[in-house]
């Protein structure tokens, strides 16, 4: 099955079936599949009497599918055929969902299709011009027939005779043809007055034995007899024997004239007529408009040959018993229960047998697919479908499992995804919407309260538990509503008392860039623009960016707003104080989502994910900004995490409510991606949709289920774990999707008439001779509609008569021979014959002129004078007609200018102007003549000419004419509306006052369009022209490159926007810093006095980079040449003295007051914590910032702040895993030790002493590893291969198992036994050379022994206890995650093996898991352990658990290993302390990690 393939969706809400097709749905012969045409594909469902499942789609047509039929030949159930408006007929294999073969023989739109039940490879199709094509796909053979020049509406092949095909036409005629006799018409059945919508052959064969058709009961008596005969054939008698008695059967037809007729094949007439009843349920008498909406489809089921099923006026399905005598009664299918019947007309019916039941399937205009039980006539199930793009998805936070779907077919669906009996329990809401539903949001606490936004700017609230129409807000947006959110009220709604204002209000954001706040209690009141609150609270005077997205933090304390320029603003409720601006994206923000607030790590709730048009997802952690709000808004330019992979713009995001840091994103590249945000890793990629993805929601009840919607009209439910891809496709997928969209459903183009030679049904005599246009028209005009047959044919016949040059002189069709005809026919013999000359001479003085016969200057009209009298009489008649019509024949012949000229000559100027205006044929000449008719006539003519020019898209010329009427504002608005901004500005400057607001509006509108198109420089010029330098600078910076940022900074400085200039200058300096151009960075920063602190950071960064490059030139080798300053420094001084000297000499920082000001300026800047993914250049800048704070604190004697800053610099390197940088920082800042800092700290300040101890521990940590890595005897050890990988493994295992022994001595011996002893190598020589170096060795050993003893600060039992508790917490959390993952895996396996019995379950409270010993452990035990560990952690003082500290157990292992080498004797007291800590807080994972770190 296709649905069981890897990555396939679990459930699908498909696209709705196509309308007004005679056969666009069918069921397979074996009863397993049901297919229907949806847009340009075919949707296949696995049919059951319970709930259907999605099988797959047949994709390949480029336009609307107009016909679909399964092969009903025995054993061929896996084949089907489809036709489309693209002119193709395709044969499919439903098992592989692939095309078997196809043909494109039709030249017109295909309107009907059927697969012959009697032949396994015959597919018959008909088109709108009446062409019937029979195609045998196994042998690629075809035949074309043209039985009638009418439009085919439906056709069906006989189930009893392989050569008979019944065809229904638009004019009500039914024709039966025999394809074995070249499509000869066997019968023409006349009786219907309107379109034939459906045809159905009787499933029982034969008509003989019926003496009379006058009694309808005899028909059904015979049908019963034939049923018995068919049963006898099954028991032994063949049906062929019955067929020998008769070769005829009955045919039923349904028409738009509200009747069903049963036809006799042998008698060639209708034997029964069934009139559709007027049902009371429609509420009254029959309306005249109902007939236009009627579609009458009929179905004659094989299992019930005495019953006919049909559709009715309003979607009802009817059953008629043909055996019944007397007044005929219809039986209505379905009960009166809501949802049992269709609500609109039904297009197709088909039946099948499944699981012992006879089922009937129907598709309708109400977009539902229904399955009926023919035994009980009740509806078994309903499959809903969608008729537009899926713009929005939203899960209810109160009624979990209720998914709201906003669709482009002007309706909202609410899907109960937790329903067990009906997997497609969907309710539809349409009242009061009347436009595409583009945004949805559930009320956070009120059940059934759903807010929606539409394409036309409407905002409303639906109560999904009632049938009432929605409440509509009286404040409309001007453009499409893109985002809705419920949040706490802000002013002015928040100013009332608790009883006077709602607890939450509704916020809407639309395409014009405005966010409205709606009062849900008073939607008829005016909505409030929150921009007024933002301006008032934050004292903003410049233009606010256009808003595109809004999102409230789950606790309602913080509001995030995304903007069109790519920025995100974070506001604090309820006054909307601006906390920070995130400048990360450079394009329009499409989605903002906050992390849920029930994570295991509380700091994750401060993460906010955002997606924009630049195909990158950024995640920011703004915990510091929210917990410590700054006095002034800060700008964040560094993301916490960056998620790269999509190739097109991001449209929606959704966090997993079941995981920490798990995010799903959807994009225009046609895929959905699941991310592990903390690791920046793509996990799963879903590619099941066939279009651009528009929305996504993670299921709140099923941890491994995601719902996505796209522009392929479908909603998919899928499981991430089943996807075979982990990341989006790189480029190819987006290209394929664009191709698919280019081939998507298009409006039908008007078909050109084909030459008659291409029509196969024309006789051979006509095909042999090429035809011309007149013959084409004469043949094809009978196929036209609207009653124009005779007129068009008459024109085609008259046309040759109006061409005298071609008809009168066929041998010499060109004009020069006509002009020279008198000269050619002038033989001298002829003119010298006297009788002939006398016969032509007429009295008069001009006889001499006739003899000369001069050439006429009007040869064509002269030649026409020599025609016959009859033709000249016809000319007179035409001339009289023209004079009588006063020249209107010119209009009919397409020469309006001649008619206008005639009217002007007659003096009817006003009439000519009025007629030309009505016909849209005004010209410059007529406008120039219009003043002759008066001033009012001239004004009216110019206005009409302006409208005509606008219709012809000549807007500049139209504006010029408006200026002639002194309508300057109208001319400017016309040019502005059609994007002629340059011309509009020129007119405004020339004709309006310089202070006129129209000019500023022109510049602003032009700038917005240029900015949208990416022309940032031109947009900046326009903003400057509108006197908006702030906006000009912001738009210049959008490109983000060095030149643009520098220009934006200078522009902001010139305009007086100092804060904005500071921001751009700093970003420009960062770009220069990434290129190692410190000189350029300082030049940019020195323009602003407020950036003096940053200049100090850049200075220290330069000196530090230079120092590190000199210390280790190999590691710092780079292809780019650094650009350093030529500062004169004393190389013999320490690094701190060098930096201080440069600060004083270059930057003028001399006093402690200056240093304090710089410190306060830099202290407010926060950078994200370093990780292993942080680039080295960025890490070095973070460290330089902290070291700058330390040196400034050193100058102001603030030793507490200095210690904290140095500690932060060291821990940044430690967290990033850059041990080399940490080692160099310790050697540069605190060489040797940091005891001198201890003397300057206040002994009563616990925090400062705790920070000092942490710093001291990290310095000792560096010294400890230096001892290990810098042994003098390392070369000897390595030469003898003692420290091999095997010894390392032995060391690891020995440490791991022997530390747990009770005897300390035995463990120590075990360590010494497993290591190579260094003294063996020192005493190998007997020549006395070792004794010569005893003094130097002893001196080095003494220094190393002192250094090793100083590392005793690392053996802190309190820190070891804290770290042990945290490891326990991490272990328990990992066990919980493993337990949940195993439970999900078990459920997934169960659902894969038995999809039918899938039932949602909850996590059991006693799911078995294993601890380290292998004993089972349950979920309550894990929760108990987690609670106890958290309680233990809370008992420790904050001075111990809040500050970083090296891993104590790791340090113990390293010290024991260093002491085991016997190069430096480990103090017995330290050894005992190490062993004690290892025994007390032992953990295998710590041993493994430590060994991996210091052995590699």
Number of helices: 51
Mean pLDDT: 79
In angstroms, what is the radius of gyration? 45 Å
**Biggest sheet, strands in spatial order?**
42-43-44-45-49
**Between the first and last Cα atoms, what is the distance in angstroms?**
52 Å
Features:
1496 residues, 4-stranded antiparallel β-sheet, 37% helix, alpha+beta
Describe this structure in words.
The protein is of the alpha+beta class and 1496 residues long. The chain contains 51 helices and 59 strands. It starts with 10 loop residues before the first strand and ends with a helix. Strand 12 and strand 13 form a beta hairpin. The longest helix has 37 residues. About 15% of the residues have low confidence. A five-stranded mixed sheet has the order 42-43-44-45-49, with helices on one face. A four-stranded antiparallel sheet has the order 1-57-56-55, with no helix packed on it. The protein has a four-stranded antiparallel sheet with strand order 2-3-4-5, with no helix packed on it.
What is the element layout, followed by pairings?
Blueprint: E1 11-13, E2 25-27, E3 33-38, E4 41-46, E5 53-59, E6 65-70, E7 79-84, E8 89-93, E9 98-103, E10 110-115, E11 122-127, E12 132-136, E13 141-145, E14 152-157, E15 164-169, E16 174-178, E17 184-189, E18 196-201, H1 216-235, H2 239-245, E19 250-255, E20 259-264, E21 269-275, H3 290-293, E22 298-299, E23 307-311, E24 317-321, E25 330-332, E26 346-354, E27 357-364, E28 368-373, E29 378-384, E30 390-395, E31 402-407, E32 412-416, E33 425-429, E34 437-442, E35 449-454, E36 459-463, E37 471-472, E38 481-487, E39 505-510, E40 515-518, E41 528-529, H4 530-538, E42 547-552, E43 558-563, E44 567-572, E45 577-583, E46 589-594, E47 607-612, E48 617-621, H5 623-627, E49 634-636, E50 641-643, E51 650-655, E52 662-667, E53 672-676, E54 681-686, E55 693-698, E56 706-710, E57 715-718, H6 732-742, H7 764-768, H8 773-780, H9 789-798, H10 804-808, H11 815-819, H12 821-824, H13 828-832, H14 834-840, H15 847-852, H16 859-864, H17 869-884, H18 888-892, H19 896-906, H20 909-919, H21 924-929, H22 935-951, H23 955-964, ...
Parallel strand pairs: 45-49
Antiparallel strand pairs: 1-57, 2-3, 3-4, 4-5, 6-7, 7-8, 8-9, 10-11, 11-12, 12-13, 14-15, 15-16, 16-17, 18-19, 19-20, 20-21, 22-23, 23-24, 24-25, 26-27, 27-28, 28-29, 30-31, 31-32, 32-33, 34-35, 35-36, 36-37, 38-39, 39-40, 40-41, 42-43, 43-44, 44-45, 46-47, 47-48, 48-50, 51-52, 52-53, 53-54, ...
Helix pairs in contact: 8-9, 19-20, 20-22, 22-23, 23-24, 24-25, 25-26, 26-27, 27-28, 28-29, 29-30, 30-31, 31-32, 32-33, 32-35, 34-35, 35-36, 36-37, 36-39, 39-45, 39-49, 41-42, 41-51, 46-47, 49-50, 49-51
């Amino acid at each position: 099955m296709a649905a069981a393939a890897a990555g396939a969706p679990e459930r699908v809400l498909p696209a709705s079936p196509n309308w007004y097709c005679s056969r666009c749905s069918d069921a397979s012969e074996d009863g397993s599949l049901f297919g229907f045409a949806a847009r340009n594909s075919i949707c296949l469902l696995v049919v059951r009497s319970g709930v259907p499942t999605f099988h797959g789609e047949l994709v390949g047509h480029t336009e609307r599918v107009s016909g679909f039929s399964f092969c009903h030949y025995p054993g061929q159930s896996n084949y089907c055929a489809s036709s489309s408006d693209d002119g193709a007929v395709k044969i499919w294999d439903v098992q592989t969902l692939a095309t078997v073969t196809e043909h494109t023989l039709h030249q017109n739109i295909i309107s009907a299709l059927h697969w012959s039940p009697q032949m396994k490879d015959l597919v018959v199709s008909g088109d709108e011009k009446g062409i019937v094509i029979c195609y045998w796909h196994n042998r690629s053979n075809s035949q074309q027939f043209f039985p009638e020049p009418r439009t085919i509406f439906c056709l069906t092949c006989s189930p009893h005779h392989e050569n008979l095909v019944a065809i229904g036409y638009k004019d009500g005629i039914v024709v039966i043809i025999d394809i074995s006799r070249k499509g000869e018409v066997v019968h023409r059945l006349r009786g219907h007055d309107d379109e034939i919508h459906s045809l159905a052959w009787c499933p029982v064969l034969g008509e003989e034995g019926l003496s009379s058709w006058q009694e309808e009961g005899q028909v059904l008596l015979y049908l019963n007899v034939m049923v018995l005969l068919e049963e006898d054939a099954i028991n032994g008698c063949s049906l062929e024997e019955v067929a020998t008695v008769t070769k005829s059967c009955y045919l039923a037809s349904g028409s738009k004239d509200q009747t069903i007729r049963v036809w006799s094949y042998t008698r060639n007439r209708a034997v029964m007529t069934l009139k559709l009843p007027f049902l009371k349920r429609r509420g009254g008498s029959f309306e005249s408009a109902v007939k236009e909406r009627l579609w009458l489809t009929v179905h004659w089921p094989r299992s019930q040959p005495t019953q006919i099923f049909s559709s009715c006026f309003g979607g009802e399905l009817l059953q008629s018993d043909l055996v019944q005598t007397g007044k005929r009664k219809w039986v209505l299918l379905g009960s009166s229960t809501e949802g049992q019947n269709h609500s609109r007309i039904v297009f197709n019916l088909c039946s099948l047998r499944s699981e012992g039941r006879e089922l009937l399937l129907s598709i309708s205009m109400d977009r539902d697919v229904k399955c009926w039980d023919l035994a009980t006539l009740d509806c078994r199930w309903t499959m809903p479908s969608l008729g537009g793009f899926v713009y929005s998805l939203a899960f209810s936070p109160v009624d979990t499992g209720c998914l709201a779907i906003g669709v482009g077919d002007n309706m909202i669906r609410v899907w109960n995804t937790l329903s067990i009996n009906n997997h497609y329990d969907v309710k539809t809401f349409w009242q009061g919407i009347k436009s595409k539903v583009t945004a949805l949001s559930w009320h956070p606490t009120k059940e059934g309260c759903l807010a929606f936004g539409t394409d036309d700017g409407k905002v409303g609230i639906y109560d999904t538990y009632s049938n009432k129409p929605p409440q509509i807000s009286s404040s409309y947006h001007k453009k499409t509503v893109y985002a809705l959110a419920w949040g706490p009220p802000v002013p002015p709604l928040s100013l009332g008392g608790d009883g006077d204002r709602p607890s939450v209000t509704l916020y809407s954001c639309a395409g014009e860039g405005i966010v409205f706040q709606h009062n849900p209690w008073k939607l008829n009141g005016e909505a409030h623009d929150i921009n007024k609150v933002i301006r008032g609270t934050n004292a903003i005077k410049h233009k606010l960016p256009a808003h595109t997205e809004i999102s409230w933090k789950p606790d309602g304390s913080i509001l995030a707003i995304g903007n069109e320029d790519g920025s995100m603003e974070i506001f604090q409720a309820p006054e909307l104080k601006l906390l920070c601006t995130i400048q990360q994206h450079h394009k329009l923000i499409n989605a903002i989502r906050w992390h849920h607030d029930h994570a295991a790590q509380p700091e994750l709730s401060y993460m906010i994910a955002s997606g924009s048009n630049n195909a990158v997802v950024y995640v920011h952690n703004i915990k510091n900004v929210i917990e410590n709000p700054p006095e002034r808004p800060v700008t964040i330019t560094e993301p916490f995490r960056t998620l790269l992979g999509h190739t097109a713009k991001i449209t929606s995001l959704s966090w997993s409510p079941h995981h920490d840091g798990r995010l799903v994103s959807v994009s225009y590249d046609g895929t959905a991606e699941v991310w592990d945000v903390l690791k920046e890793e793509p996990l799963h990629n879903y590619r099941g949709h066939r279009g651009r993805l528009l929305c996504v929601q993670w299921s709140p009840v099923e941890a491994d289920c995601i719902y996505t919607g796209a522009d392929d009209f479908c909603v998919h439910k899928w499981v991430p774990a089943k996807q075979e891809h982990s990341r989006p496709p790189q480029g190819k997928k987006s290209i394929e999707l664009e191709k698919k969209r280019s081939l998507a459903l298009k409006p039908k183009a008007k078909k050109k008439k084909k030459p008659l030679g291409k029509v196969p049904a024309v006789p051979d005599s006509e095909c042999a001779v090429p035809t011309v246009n007149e013959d084409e028209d004469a043949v094809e005009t009978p196929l036209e509609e609207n009653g124009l047959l005779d007129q068009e044919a008459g024109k085609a016949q008259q046309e040759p008569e109006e061409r005298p040059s071609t008809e009168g002189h066929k041998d010499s069709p060109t004009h020069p021979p006509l002009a020279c005809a008198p000269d050619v026919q002038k033989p001298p013999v002829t003119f010298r014959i006297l009788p002939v000359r006398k016969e032509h001479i007429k009295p008069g003085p001009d006889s001499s002129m006739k003899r000369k016969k001069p050439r006429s200057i009007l040869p064509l009209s002269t030649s026409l004078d020599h025609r016959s009298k009859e033709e000249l009489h016809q000319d007179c008649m035409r001339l009289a007609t023209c004079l009588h019509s006063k020249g209107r024949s010119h209009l009919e012949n397409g020469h309006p200018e001649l008619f206008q000229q005639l009217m002007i000559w007659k003096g009817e100027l006003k009439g000519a102007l009025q007629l030309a205006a009505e016909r849209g044929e005004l010209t410059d000449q007529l406008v120039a003549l219009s003043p002759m008719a008066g001033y009012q006539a001239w004004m009216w003519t110019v206005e009409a000419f302006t409208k005509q020019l606008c219709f012809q898209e000549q807007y500049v010329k139209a504006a010029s004419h408006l200026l002639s009427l002194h309508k300057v504002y109208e001319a400017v608005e016309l040019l502005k509306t059609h994007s002629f901004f340059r011309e509009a500005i020129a007119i405004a400057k020339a004709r309006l006052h310089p202070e006129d607001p129209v000019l500023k509006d022109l510049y602003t509108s032009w700038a917005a369009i240029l900015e949208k198109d990416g022309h940032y420089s031109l947009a900046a010029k326009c903003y400057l022209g509108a006197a908006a330098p702030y906006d000009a600078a912001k738009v210049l910076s959008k490109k983000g490159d060095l030149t643009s940022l520098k220009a934006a900074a200078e522009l902001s400085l010139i305009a007086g926007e100092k804060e904005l200039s500071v921001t751009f200058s700093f970003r420009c300096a960062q770009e220069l810093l990434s290129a190692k151009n410190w000189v350029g960075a300082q030049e940019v920063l020195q323009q602003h006095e407020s950036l003096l602190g940053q200049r100090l950071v850049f200075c220290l960064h330069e000196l530090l980079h230079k120092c590190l490059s000199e210390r280790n030139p190999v590691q710092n080798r780079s292809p780019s040449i650094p650009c350093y300053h030529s500062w004169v420094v004393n190389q013999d001084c320490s690094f701190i003295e060098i930096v201080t000297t440069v600060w004083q000499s270059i930057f003028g920082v001399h006093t402690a007051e200056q240093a304090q000001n710089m410190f306060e300026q830099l202290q407010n800047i926060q950078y994200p914590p370093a990780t292993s993914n942080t680039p080295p250049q960025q890490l070095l800048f973070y460290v330089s910032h902290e070291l700058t704070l330390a040196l400034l604190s050193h100058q102001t004697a603030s030793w507490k702040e200095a210690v904290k800053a140095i500690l932060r610099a060291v821990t940044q390197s430690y967290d990033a895993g850059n041990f080399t940088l940490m080692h160099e920082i310790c050697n540069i800042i605190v060489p040797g030790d940091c005891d001198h800092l201890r003397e300057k700290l206040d002994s009563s300040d616990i925090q400062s002493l705790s920070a000092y101890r942490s710093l001291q521990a990290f310095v000792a940590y560096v010294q400890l590893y230096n001892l290990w890595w810098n042994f003098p005897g390392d070369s000897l050890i390595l030469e003898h291969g003692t420290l091999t990988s095997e010894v390392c493994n032995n060391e690891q295992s020995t440490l791991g198992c022997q530390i747990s022994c009770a005897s300390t001595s035995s463990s120590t011996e075990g360590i010494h036994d497993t290591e190579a002893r260094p003294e063996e190598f020192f005493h190998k020589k007997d020549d006395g050379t070792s004794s010569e170096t005893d003094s130097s060795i002893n001196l080095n050993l003494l220094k190393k022994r002192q250094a090793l003893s100083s590392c005793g600060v690392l053996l802190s039992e309190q820190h070891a206890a804290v770290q042990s508790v945290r490891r326990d917490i991490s272990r328990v959390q990992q066990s919980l995650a493993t337990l949940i993952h195993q439970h999900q895996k078990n459920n997934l396996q169960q659902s894969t093996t038995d999809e039918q019995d899938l039932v949602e379950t909850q996590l059991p409270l006693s799911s078995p898991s294993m601890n380290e010993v292998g004993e089972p452990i349950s979920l309550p035990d894990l929760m108990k352990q987690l609670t106890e560990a958290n309680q233990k952690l809370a008992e420790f003082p904050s001075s111990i658990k809040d500050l970083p500290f090296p891993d104590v157990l790791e340090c113990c292992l390293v010290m024991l290993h260093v002491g085991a080498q016997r190069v430096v004797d480990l103090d017995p007291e330290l050894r005992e302390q190490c062993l004690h800590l290892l025994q007390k807080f032992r953990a295998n994972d710590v041993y493994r990690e430590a060994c991996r770190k210091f052995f590699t």
